[in-house]
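Re: [ENG-882] Designed sequences occasionally contain unexpected residues at chain ends

Forwarding the minimal case from QA. Structure tokens:
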């Protein structure tokens, strides 16, 4: 066992979640200054990480990104250094710059991936095979087969590989999970998550082409449901249904195959009782009304043998009204951007921040020989091994839509497979 060291960290992706800077300027969502870079700048200030780097596809974006971070982070919070090394350099455009950036790191250092869904797998695998610890955003991968490959690769290279399912650190969700454990056999789960139609402009580059709204939003509640049902029930069959016509019409004009609202109907079977079966319905939409006062609607209902749980995480009893924009419900429990009384960043207790900090803590602990990557599988954390059923359901949902058939989920020895 040795002293804790501060790893260098590479951020893959330079967009909304990493910096708050999108293709069309500063994000207009609830993440105007992003989450990943801000958290890592603060963790560097607090002495948990060392050098930071960032990789995208186009080096041309970096002058604007740096200006944005300088003004809205360094200019707002005290003692915040927003420097980082960039890839690709010199205004180059290179879709494989992530390889150059990863090659600069040494084994034991870390990579945080927030790039389009279809790129998660190749980037994560490349990093793991070089002995780097990986935190990849949801959906970890689009195919179950790829998820299984990452589980194996992380085991083989003895690295921490987690999925950034930050809702597991939301105090309400984690408390609800603990309460559900005492409610007996699972019976019914119904989840709704949506964002306003304006997101179809923000997501124009990939909406309907590279991924769908189920992968993008239902991944959150599917993961929470799988986490709550760990040791209680397993999913066995998925049937998907989609509403269409809004995303593909004026003014959004998304590609013809873009769905508006996707519903996955999932059969679950008890792991202890032969007679108990449950049903889950996961719905996600990116054609919700504008001006609803919330960025993400997110609520669910859980019913079990001995009781039920209702959660509405869009309306937390805290709302504001402005003369020009009307009412809005806000959520400082996720990212608190208002500074502390000393003028420093003050969001260390937000679950967006905690999700990244816990990963960095695990990396430092494993590097110092204090813990093993597999220890975290036993702690209910969103490790790549603990999140396999989330990907199984999402992948089965996509196949069900494309092939218009139910898709089975089965445990084949040590491996989860689709049928
Ligand atoms: N924005 C959110 O609120 C949010 C929240 C949770 C998870 N996510 C996940 O984050 C991912 C997208 O990130 P975002 O929201 O910041 O989107 P974004 O579109 O704003 O940014 C994507 C970034 O990825 C980069 N990129 C694309 N291909 C790449 C490659 N081959 N190598 C390196 N970089 C590449 C782009 O240059 C861009 O900087 C998605 O998987 C999404 O599900 C987003």
């Amino acid at each position: 066992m040795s002293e804790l060291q501060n790893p260098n960290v590479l951020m893959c992706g330079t967009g909304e979640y990493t910096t708050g800077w999108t293709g069309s300027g500063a994000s207009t969502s609830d993440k105007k200054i992003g989450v990943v870079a801000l958290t890592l700048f603060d963790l560097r200030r607090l002495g948990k990480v060392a050098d930071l780097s960032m990789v995208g596809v186009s080096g041309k974006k970096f002058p604007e990104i740096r200006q944005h971070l300088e003004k809205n982070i360094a200019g707002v919070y005290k003692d915040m250094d927003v420097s980082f090394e960039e890839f690709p350099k010199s205004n180059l455009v290179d879709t494989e710059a992530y390889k150059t950036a990863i090659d600069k790191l040494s084994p034991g250092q870390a990579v945080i991936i927030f790039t389009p869904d279809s790129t998660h797998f190749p980037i994560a695998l490349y990093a793991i095979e070089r002995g780097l610890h990986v935190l990849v955003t949801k959906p970890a991968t689009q195919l179950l087969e790829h998820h299984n490959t990452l589980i194996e690769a992380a085991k083989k290279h003895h690295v921490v590989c987690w999925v950034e399912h930050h809702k597991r650190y939301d105090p309400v969700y984690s408390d609800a999970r603990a309460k559900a454990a005492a409610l007996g056999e699972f019976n019914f789960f119904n989840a709704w998550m949506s964002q306003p139609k304006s997101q179809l402009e923000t997501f124009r580059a990939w909406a309907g082409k590279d991924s769908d709204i189920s992968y993008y939003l239902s991944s959150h509640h599917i993961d929470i449901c799988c986490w709550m049902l760990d040791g209680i029930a397993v999913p066995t069959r998925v049937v998907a249904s989609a509403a269409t016509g809004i995303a593909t019409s004026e003014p959004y004009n998304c590609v013809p195959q873009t769905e508006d609202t996707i519903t996955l109907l999932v059969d679950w079977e008890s792991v202890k009782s032969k007679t108990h079966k449950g049903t889950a319905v996961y719905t996600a939409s990116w054609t919700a009304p504008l001006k609803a006062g919330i960025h993400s609607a997110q609520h669910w209902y859980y019913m079990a043998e001995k009781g039920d749980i209702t959660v509405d995480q869009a309306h937390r009893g805290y709302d504001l009204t402005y003369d020009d924009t009307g009412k809005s419900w806000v959520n400082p429990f996720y990212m608190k951007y208002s500074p502390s009384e000393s003028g420093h960043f003050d969001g260390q207790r937000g679950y967006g921040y905690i999700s990244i900090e816990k990963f960095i803590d695990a990396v430092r602990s494993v590097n110092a020989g204090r813990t093993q990557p597999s220890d975290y599988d036993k702690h209910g954390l969103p490790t790549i091994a603990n999140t396999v059923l989330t990907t199984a359901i999402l992948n089965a949902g996509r196949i069900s839509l494309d092939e218009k058939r139910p898709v089975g989920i089965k445990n084949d020895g040590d491996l989860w497979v689709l049928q």
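QA comment: On inspection the terminal residues look reasonable. The chain has two domains: 9-166+349-383, 171-332+389-418. Proposing we downgrade this to a documentation issue.
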